Amino acid sequence: MTRLTPLLVLVACGQPADCPTLDGLERDACFDARVRAATGPDTVIAEARSIHDPLVRDAAVVAWVRAHRAELRPSDGRVCGVLTSTEQAGCARRLASPHLSR
Amino acid sequence: MTTTASWAALAAVLLTGCASTSAPPGVPSTCAPYWPTLPDAFALCVTRAAANVPTRAEMQALCAQADSWSAECHAGWVARQSGNPAAVPAELLDACAPSDDCALQQLDAHPDPDVLLQVARCETYSGAFVTDCVAHATQRWARAWPTGSDTTRVIAGTAPYAVQVGTFVGMVAACAPAGPDRATCPAGEGLVQTACLRAEQAYRAQPASCGGLLPPPQAP
């Protein structure tokens, strides 16, 4: 449900899902949904870079890392690079700490 | 975001004709724009705000709005408070829940000097990371070169963690300097004995691996 909420809201409100044509938080919510649907770090990075609001971007990427941490390797740490400095250390620790990857 | 809360957020949007709905009371106004369409951004916003409040009660009130970010919310406040000289470690540890990782960090940062009491604290607070917490505690204890009698006491009090404890006792048996009450692997058959003998053999085969356990050189 979580990853679908923004997309469902856009659909429910009659908004198209063509993210670049949207503005403000609607645009960010659209890209947020794309980040959540991503299957790998490179897609996450590409979609996250289109999110203007740093807080929305951080939340989307951290949520994705949290959901996929068991599949991620330390070498996937580049995904943390799209985060603000506030979240980067925690993201890197999440990927590097064995007990957090189980 | 829990399923219930997410459905509630969606229902709120549908019922109000896509107009914005009010954020829960008590949350910072800067977080309101994210409610309810961006639940994780809202929760992260609340989490960041909670890290800066001075009291545990205020933190708990805010973190209650952070939904699936509640653990990060508590951990963020504890991490911030850890830099406060007036903060009481036991209270910070208690404030970690529901973050097991936060508890593990606090337990590692402020261990009880008695390894058995530390193991008991691990069992109380560290949740999913209890085995990691016990391993860290046992490793610290082993680095202090426990005697044979203390080793017997600790083995008797840590039966659920026989592999971890046995492994570190084996390291001590192989690496500790000779002394009158030197730790040895216990006699008999069982998990602790097997783990101990295996570790002892491995360290005797590669004494250089003992380096991390050796105490600093004594000053002349």
Give a quick summary of the entry.
Chain A is mostly helical and 102 residues long. Chain A is 60% helix and 0% strand.
How is this fold's topology laid out?
The complex is a heterodimer of chains A (102) and B (220).
Chain A: H1 5-12, H2 24-37, H3 41-48, H4 54-68, H5 85-96, H6 98-101
Chain B: H1 3-15, H2 39-50, H3 56-63, H4 70-82, H5 89-95, H6 100-109, H7 115-125, H8 130-143, H9 148-157, H10 162-175, H11 191-205
Description of the molecule:
Chain A is built from 6 helices and no strands. Chain A is mostly helical and 102 residues long. Chain A has one domain (2-101). In chain A, helix 2 (24-37) packs antiparallel against helix 3 (41-48). The longest helix of chain A has 15 residues, at 54-68. The radius of gyration of chain A is 14 Å and the shape is elongated. Chain B has 2 domains: 1-99, no CATH class; 111-211, no CATH class. The radius of gyration of chain B is 24 Å and the shape is elongated. Chain B starts with a helix and ends in a 15-residue tail after the last helix. The chains are: A mainly alpha (102), B mainly alpha (220).
What percentage of amino acids of chain B are in beta strands? under 5%
* DSSP helical segment count of chain B: 11
User: Count of helices of chain A?
Assistant: 6
Rg calc of chain A = 14 Å
What is the N-to-C succession of helices and strands of chain B?
HHHHHHHHHHH
> Which regions of chain B have little confidence, pLDDT < 50, spanning 5+ residues?
1-19, 214-220
The total of beta strands of chain B comes to 0
- Give the CA-CA distance, first to last residue of chain A: 23 Å
Which series of helices and strands of chain A comes N to C? Answer: HHHHHH
Mean pLDDT of chain B: 89
Low-confidence stretches of chain A: 1-16
Distance between the termini of chain B: 61 Å
Q: What's the main sheet of chain B like? A: none
Total of domains of chain B: 2
- How many domains is the backbone of chain A divided into? 1
Shape of chain B: elongated
Q: Which oligomeric state applies? A: heterodimer
The Rg value of chain B, from CA coordinates, equals 24 Å
